[in-house]
């Protein structure tokens, strides 16, 4: 790999985004976001017990016509990257294929976070236009997948998803990722179940499928605080990742760890204090859902963080009139935020004479 896909601070210094980065660093309203998370729908075909968006599911979607308009408005606003995510399952919306085509043909970078069950129906568009597709797997076997990611009838669709990933791996232009969220659950009878023992097997499978990377993450609670795990579980995960790295990591396959896993290793605790009162990253990245436009994905569904209604309002109008400073990170964002260090860097950019290194853009997903 030629870059660290999780190094969000370095990505701020890319040339094409620099003018808006300077706006945000100065504390001024930006002319538009660089990256948008877009939930086409809140519907999902799985019934994952630990889903952090469980309370927000199955509550609406954009019409195909409005979703197509939104794609045009994102292009109009010179957005550089769009992540199709949820909420629900983004590929479950029949209008998503058109969004992929419209954005892709306009040169907008596209990321897709999916459960993988509907990759085959969207294969042509995903293979041609997606910069990356990350599949939430959280298991290395069909049995464990069925425990943590059952469909609505309680069945495991593990084999179907693996087959879909193999199809995409064979034709993709962008990257394909296998995401593993380390989870534990206490059952009603008091027994504990976990998927942590399958990290190594899942990484092996990811390599075999033809994925470009395998990402391990820690679990959040409903308030986005990182859930702490026992030392023996964390040790087991680290040992498995080290062995997977030794055996399989090369120029075509990367083992990466999210900032949440690093947080667990450093035992920093569930709370991430912040001493700044405005999130400058909110000027550069925002969330659009059928229930509203929010300052960021961590506040999906939070009425106090809503800045507009994309069902009835044009995105450029929402951006022009809204105040992205309605959330105070000191008070409202004491959870783990992947862009905390980016906010600190924006403060540095505001006070020091720093400029981007000469070079080209490599990854707009700040």
From TrEMBL:
<dbReference type="InterPro" id="IPR007197">
    <property type="entry name" value="rSAM"/>
</dbReference>
<dbReference type="InterPro" id="IPR050377">
    <property type="entry name" value="Radical_SAM_PqqE_MftC-like"/>
</dbReference>
<keyword id="KW-0949">S-adenosyl-L-methionine</keyword>
<feature type="domain" description="Radical SAM core">
    <location>
        <begin position="30"/>
        <end position="265"/>
    </location>
</feature>
<dbReference type="InterPro" id="IPR013785">
    <property type="entry name" value="Aldolase_TIM"/>
</dbReference>
<dbReference type="InterPro" id="IPR058240">
    <property type="entry name" value="rSAM_sf"/>
</dbReference>
<dbReference type="Pfam" id="PF04055">
    <property type="entry name" value="Radical_SAM"/>
</dbReference>
<keyword id="KW-0479">Metal-binding</keyword>
<protein>
    <submittedName>
        <fullName>Radical SAM protein</fullName>
    </submittedName>
</protein>
<keyword id="KW-0411">Iron-sulfur</keyword>
<keyword id="KW-0408">Iron</keyword>
């Amino acid at each position: 790999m030629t870059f660290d896909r999780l190094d969000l601070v370095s990505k701020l210094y890319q040339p094409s985004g620099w003018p808006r980065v300077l706006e945000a660093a100065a504390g001024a309203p930006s002319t538009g976001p660089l990256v948008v998370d877009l939930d086409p729908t809140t519907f999902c075909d799985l019934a994952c017990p630990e889903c952090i968006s469980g309370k927000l599911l199955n509550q609406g979607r954009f019409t195909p016509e409005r979703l197509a308009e939104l794609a045009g408005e994102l292009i109009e606003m010179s957005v550089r990257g769009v992540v199709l995510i949820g909420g629900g399952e983004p590929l479950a919306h029949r209008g998503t294929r058109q969004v992929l085509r419209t954005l892709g043909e306009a040169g907008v970078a596209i990321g897709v976070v999916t459960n993988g069950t509907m990759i085959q129906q969207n294969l042509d568009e995903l293979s041609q236009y997606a910069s990356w597709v990350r599949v939430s797997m959280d298991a290395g076997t069909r049995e464990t997948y069925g425990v943590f990611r059952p469909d609505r009838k309680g069945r495991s669709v593990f084999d179907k998803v693996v087959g879909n990933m193999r199809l995409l791996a064979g034709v993709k232009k962008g990257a394909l990722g296998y995401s593993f969220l380390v989870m534990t659950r206490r059952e009603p009878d008091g027994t504990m179940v976990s998927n942590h023992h399958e990290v190594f097997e899942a990484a092996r499978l990811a390599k075999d499928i033809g994925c470009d990377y395998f990402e391990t993450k820690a679990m959040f609670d409903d308030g986005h605080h990182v859930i702490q795990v026992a030392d023996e579980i964390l040790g087991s995960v680290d040992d498995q990742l080290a062995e997977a790295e030794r055996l399989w990591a090369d120029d075509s396959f990367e083992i990466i760890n999210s900032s949440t896993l690093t947080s667990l290793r450093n035992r920093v605790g569930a709370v991430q204090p912040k001493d700044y009162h405005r999130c400058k990253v909110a000027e550069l990245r925002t969330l659009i859902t059928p229930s509203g436009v929010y300052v960021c994905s961590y506040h999906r569904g939070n009425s106090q963080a809503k800045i507009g209604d994309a069902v009835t309002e044009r995105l450029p109008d929402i951006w022009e009139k809204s105040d992205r400073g309605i959330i105070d990170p000191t008070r409202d964002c004491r959870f783990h935020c992947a862009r905390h260090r980016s906010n600190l860097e924006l403060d540095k950019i505001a006070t020091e004479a720093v400029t981007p290194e000469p070079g080209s853009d490599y990854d707009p997903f700040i």
